[in-house]
Amino acid sequence: MYPFGWRDRSLGRRTRDILIILLCALLVLNVVQFVVSRNTGNRTSVLRDTLIVTVRADIASARNAATQLSRIGGSNGQRLLAETQQYLYGVTQLNNLTLTVYGGGQMLVPQKTVDSAISSVETCRTRVLSGQAIDVPLGELIQQITDLETAAAALK
Predict the structure, then answer these.
(1) Ranges 6-10, 46-50, 83-87: which has the least confidence
(2) Quick one: DSSP state of residue 9?
């Protein structure tokens, strides 16, 4: 009936052992892939949390400098304007970093508001240098920073 005998139809012991080893190797590779993908997700989450904490700190520092500016004049005013601008540039850089890492349209806070705040700082600086009052542009600046704080507080 079978020209080669019944043993020729079944898998040999060596072939079966090789298949078992291959199946175990595939299982181990799947477990390793799962662990690596899970760790990558954790790192991404930690990075995002770090960016959020940093942008909140920069916005709070800009607010502190702008609030002090309303109480102090003279040469300290120029220093506080420079500090406020520095923190706002930091927010811009964090937005750019977030955009680069996470892709299109994912910014921490609205860049348009940051740009408006930087423009208000420039207006204040120009008025201080020319000896004019900065009440109106400073009020706008503080309102824009408040808007940024609200946007940063909504981040998760």
Answers:
(1) 6-10
(2) G
